[in-house]
Amino acid sequence: MKLKRWIAAMMIASLGGLTACGDGNVSYQDGTYEGKSSVYTSEDGSDDGNGYGEVSITIKDGAITACTYQTYEPDGTLKDESYGMEGGKIANRDYYNKAQKAVAACEEYASQLIQSGSAKDVDAITGATINHDLFLEAVDDALSGAKAAG
User: Fold this and answer.
1) For the residues 32-58, what does the mean pLDDT come to?
2) Cβ(72)–Cβ(54) below 8 Å
3) Fewest C-beta in 10 Å: which of 87, 89, 141, 143?
4) Model-level pTM?
5) pLDDT, tens digit, for every residue of 119-147?
6) pLDDT at 81
7) Which strands make up the sheet holding 31-36, listed edge to edge?
8) Residue 136: which H helix or E strand, with range?
9) What phi and psi values does residue 137 have, to the nearest 5 degrees?
């Protein structure tokens, strides 16, 4: 019986420490915040996956209500439906499909953040882990500007 009460007390105590956006004792001001990751450069010297990510996060009543996430080539070109093509054509179907999977993951990462309220609860998608890392970095950048003075 004591164990059940202790577990219940611990659960209540841990819930009491949670605040908006699921990041512990941090609270955020309402508004829209932009964040950007650093530029990723492949360690093998190829251009595969090189680039950076940008997010726009809207917070209302202390909760994340909207998020968009896009990735860009190092030169600032948006990675969109043409990402993975060469000269406007699909030269390598496997490479193109992998590139498009990474583009599609951007929307999924943003959706997961809105649903969970916390970047630490956004799961990486196989084949889009670089985008996931860039996403987390960009979210951190955006939320650092949203922290309420306390």
Assistant:
1) 93
2) yes
3) 87
4) 0.80
5) 999 999 998 999 999 999 999 999 999 98
6) 96
7) 31-36, 52-60, 63-72
8) helix 129-144
9) -65, -40
Alpha carbon distance 70, 103 (integer Å): 8
Cα–Cα distance measured from residue 76 to residue 2, given in angstroms and rounded to the nearest whole number: 60
Q: Contact, 35 vs 140, CB < 8 A?
A: yes
Q: Which sign does the torsion angle of CA 116, 117, 118, 122 carry? A: positive
d(CA 147, CA 129): 27
Q: For the chain, give percent helix, strand, coil, nearest 5.
A: 40, 20, 40
What lies within 8 Å, CB to CB, of 20 at 6+ separation is 27, 28, 59, 61, 62, 63, 117
Q: Are the C-beta atoms of residues 142 and 57 closer than 8 Å to each other?
A: yes
Q: For residue 136, how many other CB atoms are within 10 A of its CB?
A: 19
Q: Is the pLDDT of residue 23 over 70?
A: no
Q: Are 64 and 57 in contact (CB under 8 A)?
A: yes
∠ at Cα 144 (143, 146), nearest 5°?
A: 60
